[in-house]
Design brief:
It contains 1 helix and 7 strands; from the N terminus they run E-E-H-E-E-E-E-E. By secondary structure, it is mainly beta. The chain has a 3-stranded antiparallel sheet. The chain has a two-stranded antiparallel ribbon with strand order 1-2.
Length: 60
Protein backbone atom coordinates (compact mmCIF):
# COMPACT_ATOMS: atom_id res chain seq x y z
CA UNK A 1 0.00 0.00 0.00
CA UNK A 2 1.66 3.17 -1.22
CA UNK A 3 5.26 2.00 -0.59
CA UNK A 4 7.59 1.45 -3.51
CA UNK A 5 11.15 0.27 -3.15
CA UNK A 6 14.13 -0.19 -5.38
CA UNK A 7 17.77 -1.07 -4.94
CA UNK A 8 20.21 1.30 -6.60
CA UNK A 9 23.79 0.25 -6.10
CA UNK A 10 24.32 -0.07 -2.36
CA UNK A 11 21.12 1.80 -1.39
CA UNK A 12 17.54 0.73 -0.84
CA UNK A 13 15.30 3.63 -1.79
CA UNK A 14 11.75 3.62 -0.44
CA UNK A 15 9.21 6.04 -1.87
CA UNK A 16 5.96 6.96 -0.11
CA UNK A 17 3.34 9.20 -1.72
CA UNK A 18 2.44 11.99 0.73
CA UNK A 19 0.25 13.94 -1.69
CA UNK A 20 -3.11 15.38 -0.63
CA UNK A 21 -4.83 12.61 -2.57
CA UNK A 22 -2.89 9.90 -0.69
CA UNK A 23 -3.76 11.58 2.61
CA UNK A 24 -7.47 11.64 1.72
CA UNK A 25 -7.34 7.95 0.82
CA UNK A 26 -5.52 6.98 4.04
CA UNK A 27 -7.38 4.60 6.32
CA UNK A 28 -7.65 4.89 10.11
CA UNK A 29 -5.11 2.89 12.10
CA UNK A 30 -6.25 -0.03 14.22
CA UNK A 31 -6.29 2.22 17.33
CA UNK A 32 -8.17 4.99 15.54
CA UNK A 33 -5.68 7.62 16.75
CA UNK A 34 -3.89 8.08 13.43
CA UNK A 35 -4.43 7.49 9.75
CA UNK A 36 -2.25 5.04 7.86
CA UNK A 37 -0.71 6.72 4.82
CA UNK A 38 1.45 3.79 3.73
CA UNK A 39 2.32 0.29 4.84
CA UNK A 40 4.15 -2.73 3.55
CA UNK A 41 1.60 -4.86 5.46
CA UNK A 42 4.35 -6.86 7.12
CA UNK A 43 7.84 -7.65 5.94
CA UNK A 44 8.75 -7.57 2.25
CA UNK A 45 12.04 -8.59 0.67
CA UNK A 46 14.37 -6.33 -1.26
CA UNK A 47 17.16 -8.65 -2.27
CA UNK A 48 18.39 -10.24 0.96
CA UNK A 49 16.99 -7.42 3.12
CA UNK A 50 13.57 -7.63 4.77
CA UNK A 51 11.77 -4.35 5.46
CA UNK A 52 8.57 -3.43 7.28
CA UNK A 53 7.25 0.14 7.06
CA UNK A 54 4.21 1.94 8.47
CA UNK A 55 3.77 5.66 7.80
CA UNK A 56 1.07 7.38 9.87
CA UNK A 57 -0.30 10.88 10.39
CA UNK A 58 -2.46 12.24 13.21
CA UNK A 59 -6.19 12.38 12.59
CA UNK A 60 -7.45 15.93 12.15
Amino acid sequence: MNVKGEIKGDHLILTIDLSAKAQRQARPSSTGKTKLIASTNGFINYGEVKVSVNATMPLK
